[in-house]
Design goal:
CATH superfamily of the largest domain: Aminohydrolase, N-terminal nucleophile (Ntn) domain
Number of domains: 2
Strand order of the largest sheet: 3-2-4-1-10-9-11
CATH class of the largest domain: Alpha Beta
Bound molecules: adenosine monophosphate
Shape: globular
Number of helices: 19
GO biological process, one term: 'de novo' IMP biosynthetic process
EC number: 2.4.2.14
Catalytic activity: 5-phospho-beta-D-ribosylamine + L-glutamate + diphosphate = 5-phospho-alpha-D-ribose 1-diphosphate + L-glutamine + H2O
Pathway: Purine metabolism; IMP biosynthesis via de novo pathway; N(1)-(5-phospho-D-ribosyl)glycinamide from 5-phospho-alpha-D-ribose 1-diphosphate: step 1/2
Radius of gyration: 22 Å
CATH architecture of the largest domain: 4-Layer Sandwich
Structural class: alpha+beta
Largest sheet: 7 strands, antiparallel
Keywords: Glutamine amidotransferase, Glycosyltransferase, Magnesium, Metal-binding, Purine biosynthesis, Transferase
């Protein structure tokens, strides 16, 4: 079932309550979250009695023009979304927020992440007569809310949040309130801030709170939701069955370096990962350290500092080209790497280089960059990855949902080193990563979700389970077998324990 790509979304959500410029501020907030999704964006706003919305495909500036934004100007409350979509799922019908007008109320809703039981929920809903207009999980959430027998919207929301599984944040707007909810593991983040005039904002990342000059108030934790209305702010739990497991990939790749997740600044964490990586896998004989712009620059500075090597700008990124993953096909992705990066020949020529990247997923980026540096005259290129081997798919909303596309699911570091043409290759250990992030919460993996590195899925697998096990590669199986917690008493892979 998880071959049905396109349901995985790593997006950005934003919401604001009670500001005369709510739509414009939402636009600004979304702009600062643009790195989380570039294929579509939307805003739903309210003047306290009716809800209206604008949305479109592409970057925020393409999706919502000034004219459209002007339609929303007199409204005081708003939610917004930037969308990351994968192939086959790029139509306007999937762009959020969705705006529903019912006989008794209107609701705007958007989400970030992936619901791992959405397929089965949807099937059951359809069998029961529900009609879907999009392939987005967001619609499932709205159907659940409307089918609830609860008297109040908030109770219906709570009920629905207990039915959906996975890694997600949800933002909802009604004429009476703004809601923001976080999955029972807090895999995907949501933060709350307050503006000087008393307006509240919620956002996937704190950078969207900072950009408005608002003050950070708190993170919404595992299994919690926040309600903001004219009476103020309230944070409630919708379940007691929670275990904090914040996505390590937020720190490694997704979030902006100026964001802080659960008290840990993303740049500082990445820098620390680079330092740990240098301690674990030093690159002897190197002349300089180079980072792959932009997400690996922090880690590269940490690596350089810890190894007493100069940090150099050996690669330059064209800042006007969007992230490579955003290209839906492998061919376009490969082209994308060339358009996006170039080597600084005079800097790298004849030098032994440590190349730091945040992760290797398919191996496309590293292979291209090693070749690019060698073509520019680099002598040796030692690749250091500031995260562990990405061996297992993720179903919690980071668009890496099949084992087949993961180079580390099938190849050893030695084989990957050959494949990408590097002179050496090492990864940060799982322990090194956990230490570098330093959440130190007294739960498995110290409060992190590291499923892609360990095959340990804190929110379970649900609709993806059958295919996941059917498609495990020999290398993945060997890894799981070496980790006893995945064995049942008979010594078989223990499905239930994961
Ligand atoms: P690849 O070229 O497939 O090996 O992907 C690795 C590159 O993509 C790295 O340079 C990362 O910065 C970036 N990356 C890693 N994980 C993701 C993800 N889930 N979505 C988009 N980009 C990613």
């Amino acid at each position: 079932m998880y071959e049905i790509k396109g349901l995985n979304e790593e997006c950005g959500v934003f919401g604001i309550w009670n500001h005369p410029e709510s739509a414009r501020l939402t636009y600004m907030g979304l702009l600062s979250l643009q790195h989380r999704g570039q294929e579509g964006a939307g805003i739903v706003s309210s003047n306290g009695s009716r809800l209206q919305g604008e949305k479109g495909l592409g970057l925020l500036s393409e999706a919502i023009t000034d004219v459209e934004l002007n339609h929303l100007t007199d409204d005081q409350h708003a939610i917004g979304h930037v969308r990351y979509a994968t192939s086959g799922n790029k139509g306007i019908e999937n762009i959020q927020p969705f705006l529903y007008h019912f006989y008794d109320m209107s609701v705007g809703v958007c989400h970030n992440g992936n619901l791992i039981n959405a397929q089965s929920l949807r099937r059951n809903l359809e069998k029961d007569g529900a009609i879907f207009h999009s392939s987005s999980d967001t619609e499932v959430i709205m159907h659940l809310i409307r089918r609830s027998k609860a008297d109040h919207f908030e109770d219906a929301l709570k009920e629905s949040l207990n039915i959906i599984k996975g890694g997600f944040t949800v933002a909802l707007l009604t004429k009476d309130a703004l809601y923001g909810a976080v999955d029972p593991n807090a895999i995907r983040p949501l933060a709350v801030g307050r503006m000087q005039n008393g307006a509240y904002v919620i956002a996937s990342e704190t950078c969207a709170i900072d950009v408005l000059g608002a003050e950070f108030i708190q993170d919404i934790h595992a299994g919690e939701y926040v309600v903001i209305n004219d009476e103020g702010i309230r944070v409630e739990s919708y379940t007691q069955e929670t275990t904090t497991a914040i996505s390590a990939m937020e720190y490694i790749y997704f979030a902006r370096p100026d964001s802080t997740i659960s008290g840990k600044n993303v740049h500082a964490v990445r820098k620390e990962s680079g330092k740990k990586l240098a301690q674990e896998s030093p690159a002897l004989n190197a002349d300089m350290v180079i980072g792959v712009p932009n997400s690996s620059l922090s880690a590269a500075t940490g690596f350089a500092e810890a190894s007493n090597l100069p940090y150099e700008m050996g690669l330059v990124k064209n800042q006007y080209v969007a992230r490579t993953f955003i290209q839906p096909t492998q061919e376009l992705r490969e082209q994308g790497v060339r358009d996006k990066l170039s080597a600084v020949k005079d800097i790298v020529h004849d030098k032994n280089i440590v190349l730091v990247d945040d992760s290797i997923v398919r191996g496309t980026t590293s292979k291209r960059i090693v070749k690019m540096l060698k073509d520019a005259g680099a002598n040796e290129v030692h690749v250091r990855i500031a995260s562990p081997e990405f061996m297992f798919p993720s179903f919690y909303g980071i668009d890496v949902s099949t084992s087949a596309e993961l180079i580390s699911a099938n190849k050893s570091p030695e084989e990957i080193k050959e494949y990408i043409g590097a002179d050496s290759l090492s990864y940060l250990s799982v322990e090194g990563l956990i230490d570098a992030i330093g959440l130190n919460i007294d739960v498995p993996y110290k409060g992190l979700c590291v499923e892609s590195f360990t095959g340990d899925y804190p929110a379970g697998l649900y609709d993806y389970e059958e295919n996941y096990y059917a498609n495990l590669s020999p290398r993945q199986k060997d890894y799981l077998k070496a980790n006893k917690q995945f064995f049942d008493r008979e010594g078989n892979l223990n499905v239930k324990s994961i």
